[in-house]
Amino acid sequence: MNTMLRRGALAASMLAVASAGSAQPGILEEVVVVAQKRQENLQDVPISITALTGRDVRVLGLSKNVDIAAQTPGLMFAEGSEQLISISSIRGVSQNDVSFHQEPPNAVYMDGAYISVLSASNFQMFDLERVEVLRGPQGTLFGRNATGGLMHFISRKPTAEAGGYADLQVGDHSQVRFEGAINGSLTDGISGRLAVLDESYDGYADNLTTGKDFRGRDETGVRGQLLFEPTDDLDIRLIGFYAEQDTDLGFKHSANGFDEDGLMFTLPRELNFWGRCPGCDPSGHRDRSADPFKSDFDTEGFFSSETTNFTALVDWDFNGMSLASVTQYMDYEASHLEDGELSPRPGFDLNSGQDTDHFSQEFRLSGISGSMNWVAGIYFLERDASASQDIDVSLAYFDDVLSTFGAIPPGFIAGLGTTDNMLSHWSMDTSATAVFGQLDFDLGDTWTLVTGLRYTRDELDYRFRSTESIDGFPLGPGGLLGETEASDSKSDDDWSGNITLEWRPMENWMTYAKLSRGNKSGGWNAPFLGGVVTDFDSETLDAGEIGVKSLLMDGRARFNAAAFVYDYQDYQGFTFVDFAAQVSNLDAEVTGLEAEFSISPGAGWDISLGLSLLDAQIKDVVLPAGRVTDRDMPLAPDTSFNAMVRKGWDVLGGELAVMLDYVWVDDFYSETLNNPSGLIESYDVSNARVSFRTGNERWEFGLIVRNLTDEEILVYRTPIDVGFNQDHYARPRWVSGQVTYFWN
């Protein structure tokens, strides 16, 4: 039997194993992934992958999609303030622009369908079969904006077997989280599954100005599925998803000064840098408390979103080939309000809205012909994204700030009126077409050559308009902050691909070497406070990688590792200019290594370790004062480490288990210039779970403690160039109890 046929037979046989668990105590569970858009053993795929099963997600106490980073080497999230933003970094590849029309360079997929909206890619995980994180360019088969890699969230598929589960968590800050699902046959050849989620908790940060708390959340999600199996060779799966999210938005304030390079640094609370008061920003504000969960601002913020998503998946086997179709429609709407300057006086309030419609269609044809395993496909995307930003600026506040800078005499702007309003609207329409193919050619019993190529054409149309008025009186072109009206269009044609050589010198051991290329189309910046609309070019990443995948100790241990080098051309680097995200093209170089080790030594023990090493440098960055130097890429710590240890005992006819997981993250910067105030110092987090599962495996009871040692963890910071930061802190220690019931 040749290598291709052996792989296909193995993947089919593993489905039952993966769902039922290990056949023998101490033998690691085999994991099936769809990283190459076909079912394969994780150990047979020449891609650096972390795969978390639905059980992993549950026992680790992971709820939001950003939580997976803690046990995924090389993956980082800049996430704060209860999901307003969720910027991912894979091996240092990220784009921190939170403008609502942009697409990220690390793709997010749900059930085979691409999620093109940055805000919509931040969601609660429930009723999942598996999460796959693919590191490195995935341009051939996934293509669109998978420059750094991708995250694929795969929900549980309906089956004819009746069953389901109900999971309830009750925790700190009045947290109540319920998720559950019911599954079964509706009639011959038709199965259904319905899953729901509802979570709420009160705010755990205090606003000393208003006396109210913030960073609370209410979220609801529902996913309904129908699976039609009219014949043994045809599956039609329809998925409908709807979610609502409401959060109480707010940040922590800290003040900045400027060094000789024009870079911002965080002021100690005792330093009177601006001559206004110790630790104050240029407006004279300093939070009364240094506690990261106590703030002082007058405008109570919020973030609300609504997601509607329909996906149709068709798989048809005929004449030794398979035809797959993935059809998706998504509508995403969101609004938000925030106190921009984070002070107890009127300063500037940002009120925004966004609306994106997305339709995509993919067709794939695949098969095995002798020693060749092949796939070919075509992909279409239509995406219409629009957004608005309504900013009210207190002229008295900016008079204080600008006069402190020495830019104007005191009272100059305040004499013009009370409030300057800047209203901006922008939109970007995207039409994309791609054709792609990949061929795996068996060179013998131990060697396989993989080649793939994708050609993509993007058509982009952009429109931007902003108007300005003081106290309701419109200003003409070139007002105080500037008035802008612009429209532009561009076409991007590019290719991505890979060539990989696999070598299997022995059973349970595979080594690979690959060259791959990824790309992301260009776009335009949105100057919220007026000015010139600028564009940026597409980016290209050329990567070289070598890796090894192995099973050791008769299947009781798994060791996977990869080393890589990236040549990043026209990297889309991010800074903040005039309170708005500004992207420009730079070159970068990345080298790194990641490794994962898992072992089940027996007697109820499970241990996993992960390591990521990075050296990610942006070349020839021009600092504000004009000096040219290299900078660290944002969200790219030199070192990160994760670990999980679980021990189970047979008790009272069931299993009592204790689990500890841990992550340590080295220092990293939050933006391209490496402002000292944007430095996130190293931190570590440990979590614990104690559980008991009854012998009939119907009931499970758990106690979860996240952030076990109650660390104050600054996870992200946005330096604002008028002398302060918006600081994002992770949650404090959080204790919850969990009860789960399974039926079948």
From TrEMBL:
It comes from the Bacteria. Residues 268-708 form the TonB-dependent receptor-like beta-barrel domain. Residues 1-23 form the signal peptide. One of its GO terms (cellular component) is cell outer membrane. Residues 42-149 form the TonB-dependent receptor plug domain. Its main location: membrane. The keyword Magnesium does not apply. The keyword Iron applies. Keywords: Cell outer membrane, Ion transport, Iron, Iron transport, Membrane, Receptor, Signal, TonB box, Transmembrane, Transmembrane beta strand, Transport. SUPFAM superfamilies: Porins. Belongs to the TonB-dependent receptor family. This is TonB-dependent receptor.
